[in-house]
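Our platform keeps sequence and structure together, in a single record for each protein. Such a record has a labelled line for the sequence and another for the backbone structure tokens. The tokens are whole numbers drawn from a learned vocabulary of local backbone shapes. The remainder of this section carries one protein's record, kept here as part of the documentation:
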Amino acid sequence: MTSWQGAWRLYQHELRHSWAGLIFSILFYAYIALIISPSMGELFQAAEDSEQIWKWLIDFFYLTILPNMGFIMNRVMFRYWHNDPYTRKLAYWRTMPIGLLSLVISRMILLLTTLLIVGTIFFTLQYFLVGGLREAMNPGQYLLFAACWWAYSLIAGSLYMFFEQAYNGKVYFIICLCSLLIYFPLLMLCWWIGFHPVSDSMQLAQNSNPIGAIVMLIAGAAAFMASGHFVKNKLGTRSLLN
């Protein structure tokens, strides 16, 4: 069995046991699309107001929530601190004739497919829920906007994937908490320089300028591949006994 065949079987195994979590993730992000739609609508009513509170609210939602779009929400993700289930799963798999590369590839495939499914539903719902979006951008322009933020989710999700597999549950949980603290100074910096990630990327898409989406997709692909490489190296030396 090749590494890719092993990875595909592991991926199918994970998906069979996580289908309920995937459905929950879809429903959760559908709910997010629903609750932020009024704020998105307000964004278009006063687009020239750089101090508009809705801009900061939408930026906050996008920057903090979208990075988790590629992760299946199930009971396992809420037990990292106490039971460290993913490390235990990795330790079990390493006792079986499963190559290290197969483990890494299967996790990468799971991240990518989850992000594709959940992201497609989230951005599609948002487009149909917010009338201002349909008035401001045609489907092609909105696709550029969505691709930009989907790539952002891939970049952040790849980083989280590395920490998830490279460290034990407690360390990973602490890293996730600390990462939340990074978003606040990042938002403050954006406020200070007058940069609005969502509205500015939207304006770029409205001009049918694909440069933002292209740069972000290239960066996303690079982060995704780099994360897989570093995960493989880390798992090759990581102790799974703690």
About this structure: Residues 128 and 134 are 7 Å apart (CA to CA). The longest helix spans residues 3-45.
